[in-house]
Amino acid sequence: MTVAIRSDIEFYAVIGKAVSRAIDEVIERVFSALQDEIRRDIYGAYTPQDYDRTEGLLEAWKHETSGLFGNIEFQPDMLPVNPSAFQHDSPYGWDVRAEIFDILEGGYKAYNAKTGKRAIPPRPMWDDFLAKIDSKIDRWIQIALRRQGLVLEVI
After folding, report:
1. Measuring CA to CA, which residue among 133, 102, 117 is closest to residue 32?
2. Closest C-alpha to 41, from 57, 27, 29
3. What span, in angstroms and rounded, lies between the C-alpha atoms of 8 and 4?
């Protein structure tokens, strides 16, 4: 059976919900891949000796799907703050939550009263993450649509 779709309203009525569920599946895959990349390239690249990690970067994200739109957005305010432990802030008022990925990407010199200044290595991840997602996204979309009973024919 062939259905002629003549407007956005008809499109959404016919297959919009299935596409929305497929987008939700793809957003969840992207979010999971993002968490894997953070584990590997941020937390796995350097192990501090005198700092307890919060691992808050794994969950400080809003990921949502609404209709035919999906989004993943970093939410720095979701990162825990403990100034006395220098976790995303300090007793001197250096709240770095909004800039944390820039800081981690470039590396920095940390100061510890016992050991002095120490180089913290750069931990780039965005380029690797985007390249991995770019190589997989088309396949993920096709799989998600197929799971909803929609077959995407690539021409």
Report:
1. 133
2. 57
3. 12
For the whole model, what pTM was predicted? 0.81
Distance of CA 19 to the CA centre of its chain: 22
Classify strands 69-74 and 108-112 as parallel, antiparallel or unpaired.
unpaired
pLDDT at 35: 97
**pLDDT at residue 143 is higher than 70:** yes
Helix axes 17-37, 126-147, angle to 10 degrees: 150
Looking at residues 55-67, what average pLDDT do you find? 92
Non-local CB neighbours of 133 within 8 Å, separated by 6+ positions: 30, 33
**Phi, psi dihedrals of residue 146, rounded to the nearest 5°:** -60, -40
Helical spans, DSSP H, in 5-91: 8-11, 17-37
- Listed in sequence order, the DSSP H helices in the chain are 8-11, 17-37, 100-106, 126-147
Per residue in 80-137, pLDDT (tens digit) is: 887 777 777 777 878 888 888 888 888 877 655 566 667 777 888 898 899 999 999 9
